[in-house]
Amino acid sequence: FIGWGLAAPIVGLISDRLNNRCKPMLFGAILSAVLISIIIYVPDIPKWLVFCLLFTFGACYSVEVIVFAYACDICPNHAAGTALAMTNMLVMLGGSFFQPIIGKLLDLHSSSNILAQGEHIFSIADYQFALSILPIGMVIVSLMILWLKEPRIIK
Q1: From residue 81, how far is each of 98, 119, 121 by CA, in Å?
Q2: Strand boundaries in the chain, DSSP class E
Q3: Nearest CA to 34 among 126, 129, 136, 102?
Q4: How does pLDDT run across 101-135, given as a tens digit for each residue?
Q5: Cα–Cα dist 105/77, whole Å
Q6: CB neighbours of 129 closer than 8 A, spacing ≥ 6?
Q7: What are the φ and ψ backbone dihedral angles of 22, each rounded to 5 degrees?
Q8: Which candidate, 64, 79, 69, places its Cα nearest to that of 20?
């Protein structure tokens, strides 16, 4: 969250300075997919390196804020509020949609029925399988960005 919070204003500024929305979003989505894949799949990463990777992942993922600017850029000025509200709703729905899916994938892939104090114990492979939806989703988003038309940015 710290990486996201620090980088989001910078990413927005870069997008405005480049007069381009799609390229920064594409770059951030691809780099986010690579970083989260390293975090999920590479074994025995030192704790300090995990912190650095998560910080960098957050910074790269902050390109999400450009989606809000894109929404305003492609709609008439009188509909900007509605576009922002709709974009925000979709972003929030994404989080509420993926959390239960990750839980279901974890349950489906569970390699054992071992319980500790009434709770399931999952293996690293179970978590890797369930969390695979994150890099897969980011790759899908990267492909979708390729179909976006670059909006005319009004300064």
Answers
A1: 26, 45, 46
A2: 115-116, 119-120
A3: 136
A4: 998 998 888 866 666 676 778 888 999 999 999 99
A5: 42
A6: 105, 106, 109
A7: -70, -40
A8: 69
